[in-house]
Amino acid sequence: RVLAAGHVNWDVTLRVDALPDPDGEARIESQHAAGGGSAANAAVSLAGHGVDASILGSVGDDENGLLVERELAEAGVDTDRLRVVDDGETSVKYLVVAASGQVMVLGNDGANEAVGPDDVDAETVADADHVHLTSQRPETATRLARLAADAGATVSFDPGRRLDARDFSATIERADVLFLNGREAASVLGSEYANAPPTRGGLVVVKHGARGATVHTATGSYDHPGFDVDAVDTTGAGDAFAAGFLAVVLGADGIDADRIERALEYANACGALAATSEGARTAPDRPEVEAFLDD
Ligand code: ADP
Predict the structure, then answer these.
(1) At 139, which CATH number?
(2) Is residue 132 part of a domain?
């Protein structure tokens, strides 16, 4: 069982002809609303790959919160640890996607991050074999990583674009698997990252967008060039990638080094397929990935 911890949002994707200039106006060509937030996206994807998944995060006691919770439950995600904050507002993101592929995000964190370090204890991670951490308060992430390690569970961390604004070094040190895009890798690891994964003997997975991804281990690296698809919207591709990677690499005893190459290929297929449709909650499930890889 995997516990995904971090942001749970309601996403509204607006497809426009072009991003407007200040004082300008853009024409909405289509709109689409669905659950989002990197922890929730990962949990839903994991469930789609047949992994027993649960979510730790917070929403407000508003209509969007109800929609988010219902979507998670319908996807088969255990929502027992999803906190509903009294008088809270569920985090909303407006993703404005231009025909050129350029994306602008408007949003707030709303009730996200109501879960603090004092709200989690050994009980929170007791039934998890693996804890997947996404952007959240660094103190909460670090405490969860510590609790997971104490309970014998493995930990992955996908900090996302807030990495620059917050000090996640203590969480990074405790992660068995670290997911970074190229820019994040440069900021965390510097130019030497290829030879020096900073996690304790763990894996550093660097995503290169359309050019696939690389896994660095203590003993060597694996590369996958990615898949050539017609990308429409890459929002959520990273979450789909992480979930796909974990669904394959996690074995009965935690991270199975023999499965890294297969996990990398599977994860790239997940990211590529997620990029072919609009919105963040577009990760493929296992049958879709297998059909794509068999083609
Ligand atoms: P993030 O979204 O976290 O910044 P990336 O943009 O690198 O990360 O995307 C994550 C993964 O999704 C990539 O490693 C790749 O497997 C897949 N992916 C993203 N964009 C494309 C694309 N245009 N074509 C094919 N695969 C893509």
Answers:
(1) 3.40.1190.20
(2) yes
DSSP 188: H
Residue nearest ligand 1's atom 13 by CA: 209
Domain tally, the chain: 1
Residues in contact with 36: Cβ distance below 8 Å, sequence separation at least 6, in sequence order: 9, 10, 11, 93, 236, 279, 280, 281
Which atom of ligand 1 is nearest the CA belonging to 272? 26
pLDDT tens by residue, 148-189: 999 999 999 999 988 888 889 899 989 999 999 988 888 777
**DSSP of 271-282:** HHHHHTSSSS--
Residue 158 falls within a domain, yes or no?
A: yes
Is any atom of ligand 1 closer than 6 Å to the C-beta of 238? yes
- pLDDT tens-digit readout, 243-288: 999 999 999 889 999 999 999 999 999 999 999 987 777 889 999 9
